[in-house]
Amino acid sequence: MSFDSRFSAEERAAFAELVITGQQTTREIADKHEVSRSTVQSWVDRYRKERGVPTPPRGGGVDMSAKAVAKYEKLEKAKAESDRRAEVAESRLAQVEALAARQSSAIEALKGALRLFMNPDEFGDGALA
Q1: What is the rounded end-to-end Cα distance, in angstroms, of the chain?
Q2: Which residue among 5, 61, 77, 95 is the one 20 to 30 A from 44 at the CA level?
Q3: How far is CA 84 from CA 58, 78, 81, 89, in A?
Q4: Are residues 86 and 115 in the same domain?
Q5: Domain enclosing residue 124, as ranges
Q6: How far is Cα 83 from Cα 91, in angstroms, rounded to an integer?
Q7: CATH code of the domain in which 50 resides
Q8: Are 47 and 11 in contact (CB under 8 A)?
Q9: Is the pTM of this model over 0.70?
Q10: How far apart are CA 119 and CA 122, in angstroms?
């Protein structure tokens, strides 16, 4: 079967394999490469026929267990990234809280010094005046 395509036979086979193994859906490949889903599905069908890969039961071009595994892995990656960001945020919060405590202490010391200079008689015999 000969036809004009922007993609080589090897590329079409690679796209089909991504769908069959559950790494990507026909929609993801179609959207990414700006082709119709039916075109991607025809590549998958041709790949299955040429290599003797059985067609899964009706309900999707991807074996459901492979689809579930791919979704789980995607969620695990998202969770790991979220956990990493939370750790960074917690670390930064601890740094900011420590800085705020140091600044608060410094402000109290400055207030004491200001009171001393404004009212030297409050602090003893007035020898500083």
Answers
A1: 104
A2: 77
A3: 39, 10, 5, 9
A4: yes
A5: 82-129
A6: 12
A7: 1.10.10
A8: no
A9: no
A10: 6
